[in-house]
């Protein structure tokens, strides 16, 4: 898959904001399978501000890599606000970074469950200097569109957090 050129200005703006604060970014991705990390590392010089990325596609990976309790996944499902928040805080705990982004969702075409249609994505973030947050995205389109918009929204959130310096 070729990465969209239209993300380069967005990633460059994020890089500038992170460098200005002396921050590094870590990602924890499920439904995007590493696309956020790929967008970040597609830009030359990203080693200055991108620390690492976790692809935690399975529930076991969320538990083993990020410390998401299996009981939390059992109670709320992998695609939920509590799981997304713990993915973000877990990524931050397992990295030398200041800002973490996490995404978990149903990109489709299958996987929908009652109350969680295809296009349901939880985006979460955590800062060393502030509280974690999360937002529910209800996206339309096919699998590729859901994943692409999720990457864009995650990068937007990271940029706004880096520019503000806090949640």
What does this structure look like?
The protein is α/β, with parallel strands linked by helices and 167 residues long. The protein has helices at 8-21, 35-41, 59-66, 70-76, 81-93, 143-164, and strands spanning 25-29, 50-55, 99-105, 120-127, 130-138. It is built from 6 helices and 5 strands; from the N terminus they run αβαβαααβββα. Strands 2-1-3-4-5 form a 5-stranded mixed beta sheet, with helices on both faces. α1 (8-21) runs parallel beside α6 (143-164). The relative contact order is 0.18.
Briefly summarize what is shown:
This protein has 167 residues and is α/β, with parallel strands linked by helices. The protein contains 6 helices and 5 strands; from the N terminus they run αβαβαααβββα.
Question: Keyphrases for this structure?
Answer:
globular, 6 helices, 167 residues, five-stranded mixed β-sheet, Maf protein
Straight-line distance between termini: 33 Å
> In CATH terms, what is the architecture?
Alpha-Beta Complex
Low-confidence stretches: none
Biggest β-sheet description: 5 strands, mixed
**Which geometry do the CA atoms define?**
globular
Helix-strand blueprint:
Layout: H1 8-21, E1 25-29, H2 35-41, E2 50-55, H3 59-66, H4 70-76, H5 81-93, E3 99-105, E4 120-127, E5 130-138, H6 143-164
Parallel strand pairs: 1-2, 1-3
Antiparallel strand pairs: 3-4, 4-5
Helix pairs in contact: 1-6
